[in-house]
Amino acid sequence: MSTVFGVPTQALFGQLLIGLINGSFYAMLSLGLSVIFGLLNIINFAHGAQYMMGAFAAYFLLQWSGLGYWWALLVAPIVVGLFGIVLERTMLKRLYHLDHLYGLLLTFGFALVIQGMFRHQFGSSGLPYAMPAQLAGGRNLGFMFLPNYRAWVIVFSLGLCLGTWYVIERTKLGSYLRAATENPSLVQAFGVNVPRMVTLTYGFGVALAGVAGVLAAPIYQVSPLMGADLIIVVFAVVVIGGMGSIMGSIVTGFALGVVEGLTKVFYPEASNTVIFVIMAVVLLVSPTGLFGREK
Question: pTM of this prediction?
Fold first, then answer.
């Protein structure tokens, strides 16, 4: 059996695949957080709960309506996004002119309430969710076995992240969104409904969490606590990439997933803390993160 630095090749590439899978979810979730913070200045601590709600929405669609994975991938993010719009219209809009801490505390409390309700109803153990039959099985690449579903998650999440970056950074809609964060009165003078844009932006950021939840359901099962631990890591990813940086979230999310996966091969004891160590080092060198800008 071939080895790399004394590690069997199959084990090395297996952990690399796991790292890319985790990185896909880190990137999607941190992207949603960056969209919300960059355009609304809200630190959305409810993102982990909204990710969990996306997975449960897929589960409910299957159990109650018989709608499988592909329909859930379309419908569940819309449902979660609409839920986010209600939250923004009823609560968050009152906090835009206050310190970031108020939004953080509100969304953190909201996350605890949602997780508590789902945990009371469904317990802590995971509920199974079958992957689509079209993506069952895998391919033997010689040096490793690549499951089709995991390859799909990586490709789909990368495409979604890059598509979001393109819309925000390279289109007229994105320019309106960015301008609205700097001077909403001026943008509104050009006939743009800024409050509606803000609401839809928050809904879109939440919908990204819902997409991630649907993609995660067949891999990690559906659990009320599936977003509780993940959100701490995702916030670290956002800080490392730079708060509000779209490309920073994408690049850092995938890169740190790979670093975490390789750390499990070469130094397993540090795999749970390596991202936080990197965050501390980055903040010492560049307090605004790798891709962040001074405001």
Answer: 0.93
**Any residues with CB less than 8 A from the CB of 103 and at least 6 apart, and which?**
41, 42, 43, 44, 92, 95
Hey, what long-range contacts does 114-122 have (CB within 8 A, 24 or more apart)? 114/46, 114/49, 114/52, 114/53, 115/49, 115/52, 115/224, 115/225, 115/227, 115/228, 118/52, 118/56, 118/224, 119/224, 119/225, 122/224
Residue 282 corresponds to which tokens in the numbers above?
A: 């980055």
By DSSP bridging, strand 138-140 and strand 3-4 are unpaired
CA 142, chain centre distance (Å): 32
Domains of the chain: 3-100+112-285 (1.10.3470)
Query: What does the pLDDT look like over 1-52, one tens digit per residue?
Result: 566 656 677 778 888 999 999 999 999 999 999 888 877 788 899 999 999 9
Under a CB-based contact definition with an 8 Å cutoff, are residues 250 and 206 in contact? no
Residues of the chain with confidence (pLDDT) below 50:
none
Q: Which helix (H) or strand (E) holds 192?
A: none
Tell me what pLDDT residue 5 has: 58
DSSP designation for 127: B
Q: How far apart are CA 225 and CA 239, in angstroms?
A: 23
| Residue 127 phi, psi dihedral angles, 5° rounding | -105, 135
Q: How far is CA 250 from CA 8, 174, 210, in A?
A: 29, 17, 17
